[in-house]
Amino acid sequence: MNVRRSAAALAAAAVIGAATPALAASPSPTPSVAIPDGLYGTADPTYDGVWRQSLALLAQDTAGVVPADRAVAWLTGQQCANGAFAAFRPDPAKPCDAKLMVDTNSTAAAVQALTALGGHAAQTGKAVTWLKSVQNADGGWGYNPGGPSDANSTAVVTGALVAAGEHPEQVVKGGKSPYDALLTFALPCTGDGAGAFAYQPDKQGKLTANADATAAAVLGALGQPLNASAKKADGTSSGCAAPTTPEQAARNGARYLSTALAKDHHLVSALPGAENQPDYGNTADAVVALAAAGQADEATAALHWLEANAPRWAAQSGPAAYAQLVLAAHATDTDPRAFGSTDLVRLLDATGPAPKQTATESTASDTSDDDGSSTTLWVTVGAVVLVVLVAAALFLARARRRQQP
To answer: How far is CA 10 from CA 3, 15, 268, 273, in A?
Structure first.
């Protein structure tokens, strides 16, 4: 679920959302397009505009923030007439054509954000219809329509279906559902990467463990969206077993992630020719996956590592990074306003248009209006004062009568 890059960059890295730049990396180049009004962040939106906007809005919603109307309008304005979204449309007034590369990830993320915000049934309905129309015969989805299915894309679309009120097991193509597709990426319990998910099989059909794909696929197999909440541990064994059901495959994947996090409490990115670097985004995604799988305890150490180390990464990476951390906090019932010493929500809000309402304002309003408790209190106090005043008046009246001759 890391910040999406171009299709070419994704292919080169062999994962959706390859590792984010190291903290020592140079600043992003000047954007090649003007930053539209309402968009979060100041980096070039060509390859991740809709994705980062969707994550920002989704994270704000989990934190009780009501975003600015123009931020939501920017996202809805990116949708094509057929329901699909591209990573970025520089001119929304221009109809989408065959040259525009729409994709399943941007579309699925937009569905999840707009569903969470509410009031956008027409847009999300068209988007879901389009997603169903480009489902592959194996039940899954690739990044671009018609491309081979991969674990990340299939997972994020599954989350969108669930968010929109669909039942993924009933969304079938060629007799296969998204859950069937996800099982094809699950590694067995023996050998390297036992229990993990692969992004895609290689040309020989071999599956290679991929932490990013595993974090995404655990959510997908559990039927959870990107803003998943913590699940209470149900006592089910977390040991690895044959991944014959989505639930067992998810448990296996969570176990793999827990093991991968055990030593340093974070995942690492390993790109050819580069030194291994902490992978902040995928660590945040792993925390969400573990919490959704009922293994919040295993996620705690990784969350503490993120609290201590990730804010500086997010400051360099932008709104999608802040959103990932907010979603990790949400999944573990952690206050994103007290993420270590960092107020993630304030910093996320600052990357886009000023929100219509912050959670603090909402809380104050709720206290006085929603359940009537404050009103009841003041009515009670007023009644007591009135009784006291009436009693005092009667006492004085009687005293005057006694003093009269």
So the answer is: 11, 6, 17, 17
